[in-house]
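Section: Multi-chain targets

For targets with more than one molecule, the full set of components is provided together so that the structure can be written out for the assembly as a whole rather than chain by chain. Components appear in the order listed by the source. The example entry contains two components.
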Amino acid sequence: MTSGEDKLIARFFKPLATHPGALGLSDDAAILEPPAGHELVLKTDAITGGVHFFPDDAPDLIARKALRVNLSDLAAKGAKPVGFLLTLALPSSIDEQWLGKFSAGLQADAQAQGCPLFGGDTIATLGPVTISIFALGSVPRGAMVKRSGAKPGDRVVVTGTIGDAALGLTIRKEPGAAQSWKLDARLRDHLIGRYLLPQPRLGLAEALRTHASAAMDVSDGLAGDLTKLCGVSGVSAEIGVGSVPLSAAAQRALASDARLIETILTGGDDYEILCTVRPDELPAFRARAAAADIAVTDIGVVVAGKDEPRFVDAGGAALVFSRKSFSHF
Amino acid sequence: MTSGEDKLIARFFKPLATHPGALGLSDDAAILEPPAGHELVLKTDAITGGVHFFPDDAPDLIARKALRVNLSDLAAKGAKPVGFLLTLALPSSIDEQWLGKFSAGLQADAQAQGCPLFGGDTIATLGPVTISIFALGSVPRGAMVKRSGAKPGDRVVVTGTIGDAALGLTIRKEPGAAQSWKLDARLRDHLIGRYLLPQPRLGLAEALRTHASAAMDVSDGLAGDLTKLCGVSGVSAEIGVGSVPLSAAAQRALASDARLIETILTGGDDYEILCTVRPDELPAFRARAAAADIAVTDIGVVVAGKDEPRFVDAGGAALVFSRKSFSHF
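Its structure, encoded as tokens over all components, is:
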């Protein structure tokens, strides 16, 4: 008598619902109260086949990317993951094998990040697989790191390396690109891996709350996202292009084709953290990042003004981009 | 420099983000703390074109249905709406006129129900319009009405009328159905309207918290949903088919074709509330419902046992359904 939908939920998703407030996914809704003195941070991001991932990507990686793009936002806001809800639109081509891999990938990340499933909705669709995740985090009351706090004189800092995922996506679309950039298999796979599986910088959340004046995650390209942060903060910025941290693979590609700097600085899917830090806070922030084993790099300075941030090359000239960031529309 | 996505959000969705914790949709995430002594109720439901609505349905009604199916769950749980997040997957065929109507419909309901927008994600899709809503409500700590509290002897109660939306959907699919059921235009439009625009019973939330032993909303058909409630509560139920409240339109249709009782009792999209109430609580519950101008009908009794609930006709025979409820899979 149990419906197919109920069976699917019980088999594939109930094991992820480890929080008592999820009621084992046996009710219409879940119950959640933030820890005393804390408030919740709410975020939603969706991904869909043919746009954010390739239909033949491994289902476990699709699931993990769907969750991680949300966790990346929580990290940038200084929040600790609390849990998530999921809506999953499935075309008829999806079988139990795909769902098994999808839910196993989701479960692995949910467990590793302490972010259990609180509920969801599974629907049939005439379109591609579409995954919407609603992530909840918690921060001490009033402590969420906003985009709006950057002040002139603050240093502009990014985690990890920039541009890898955009180059990885280019390789996925144009398989000859890796060869033309003189990348060996290891460097090529590094870029593709960075596209497939973001690394949310949750280990930096507390340091951001303590030391950052503003932060956001870099999901739509560094140049465009910095422009958004500066816009909300009412400031501008000056970035040294040569200071932007690049992986060995991105450096090699850039050496082969200098025009790739635009892909690197404006392409999406980095899922690194962009933040601003007062100069006197920077040493302590660096120490906390090092303790968390997360690379952070000072790439420039916040300046007064309403101009768009400038990306200045070694010769002192500002780069001009044909477009600043990824946008769906 | 603002991206198309940012412009779209500013124009169509920022007016809905009236809660200060939404930060005017200018940040990556929103901030929310439940009222003191309260906990949050979390719910997500998604709808997609060609499955839950027809692509040519009015965009404002699609938006309102997407929100209302979630509000219906909050009502059934005894929760007061706090806010919602939205992910919207849009095919390239969607234009600004469609979006304007969609956001206007959403805004009307968000305002009327006190349920502002806290955030969202708008993505391009190769498939049909897909709308995922994550709704948050609040209840006094420990007061959420679960599915699991029904006890033998409790009365089984439903709000409103049952089966209208399923009959309305049948008419949408088979335009000749209304005529064969001898429905005039007014009765036909009543059924179609019930399919297009659910009425979440939020006015009953407090009465449910006070008087109901268990509750859920009827979204996948009364028979199947009652089976779920009984299953989680570890009980069975006996329902008088003749007691199930039907609209004038449904009564007329049923008089024309007695087989429609299965569509009425097992079809989806009612978005009424199914609850169980101790007999001694029933008068007070009825009075509260009357004060809220929400019809409630006693349709049967919870009984001990693990059998599936029985729907008994006037002759004392139990109906046998070919399927108990709507399921996507």
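The two ends of chain B are 45 Å apart (CA to CA).
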